[in-house]
Amino acid sequence: MCDKPFFYNPDIDTKIAGLYDLQHTIGRGHYAVVKQARHVFTGEKIAVKVIDKTKLDNVSRDHLFQEVVCMKLVQHPNVVRLYVVIDTPTKLYLVLELGDGGDLYDYITSHGDGLSEKVAKRYFRQIVTAIAYCHKLRVVHRDLKPENVVLFEKLGLVKLTDFGFSNKFIPGTNLDTACGSLAYSAPEILLGDSYDAPKVDIWSLGVILYMLVSGNLPFQETNDSETLTKIMDCDYSMPSHLSPDCKRLISRLLIRDPQKRAHLDDILQDDWLKLDDNDLPIELFSVPLISREHLSFEDHMEILSKMAEGQLASVDEIQSTLDRNEYNHIAATYYLLAERKLKRNYIEEYKRLASQSQLIEKRKQEQQKCINCVFGLSENAKQVQNVENNITPKSLVNSVMGSSTATPTSRILNSLGSSNVEDRVRRFSMILEDEEEEEESKGSPIAPTSFDRYISGINESAKMVNDSDALHR
Known about the structure:
Layout: H1 12-19, E1 20-28, E2 32-39, E3 45-52, H2 58-73, E4 82-87, E5 91-96, H3 104-109, H4 117-136, E6 139-140, E7 149-152, E8 157-160, E9 167-168, H5 187-190, H6 197-214, H7 224-233, H8 244-253, H9 264-268, H10 282-285, H11 297-309, H12 315-323, H13 329-375, H14 379-389, H15 393-401, H16 408-413, H17 418-442, H18 452-472
Antiparallel strand pairs: 1-2, 2-3, 3-5, 4-5, 6-9, 7-8
Helix pairs in contact: 4-6, 6-8, 11-13, 13-14, 13-17, 13-18
EC number: 2.7.11.1
Enzyme class: transferase
Function: May play a role in hematopoietic cell proliferation or differentiation. Potential mediator of neuronal apoptosis.
């Protein structure tokens, strides 16, 4: 199954030295190391998983093959992106998206008794969304655990990784391979029976949720034998500090009979997991998976021109690589530049809408002062206050843009309060400013554009509205 390389070039190790600057080791396994690296052409930080093929037995080779196949198939904002696969006679290099916050296990344990339900809910919702997407593509992960969830802390995102035990499944047909980690494995896997593939992921989700909100594993004991007994008996203690809704969701996932476990659609609609009024939708700040459809024609051509000017490849060669959906250095460079471009487009949109929200709030406050001064909080003033309270960023944006012409980003943002938008805008601005400083220090051939002009534009807009208000008062 794995006799043929994914693609082969005898000089590829030499080429890696010029294309990817391998740095320090950030992870290590039985036959692989993960290194932080820099994509030389763009300056972007990436992760490179270096697999020593000489240490692989047949089973490990099959797992590796499945990992690559499934990661190519499952392309989702909450799954670590695979950019390049480079195969050599002795090593396999997987060039991957790099998180900035380590893995979720270390993050949870650093918080002692677990995360707040608000934070846990945000991360768990993303994990469930990713798994739901995997299952729609008939891919089961089979090794879900916090160690295999990468934290992108600055963005407030988590992403699944390590698809080494993943496999394709056919609905209604059971799988037989026993795999995964004991503490997160479903009882039916530990029994050695054939099993309904999606249901084992549901069980693991229950273990992850329990750990998120408690800081502990539900079935972990001093030795594997006792842990196994606890799992088979589904014997665990529910933390008393959890909300009733959270307890109920955990109990819907950690059920001995796999057929009685909640379905993914039910989990996503669960009362505990529903978005609160002040929550931001996941899709708002998850940079979408990049394809040419996400970019304007102008942005697409600009990226092609920059790559051609940098003598990476001709425009025709780049276009051909994208058309064939190849996983090589040319495609990786294109997508890294496209992701950078899309981030900046989103920031520009966020700042524009945030400035509108700020102006709404300022106008409401000034008008309220005027009303209080004249009416002294009379009934008339209260009625006016009620009218003013109904003014929202959504109503303003709809009146300015029109719902039919709003962009996807605008439609999502229309329903949000200004404080949430402003907070995320500041967060993204800091991230991109950090990236710009790093690029300037490295002298990257493609330096990101500063956002000072956006801030200046917001301030100028605020001044114009203030002047307009003064004329009407």
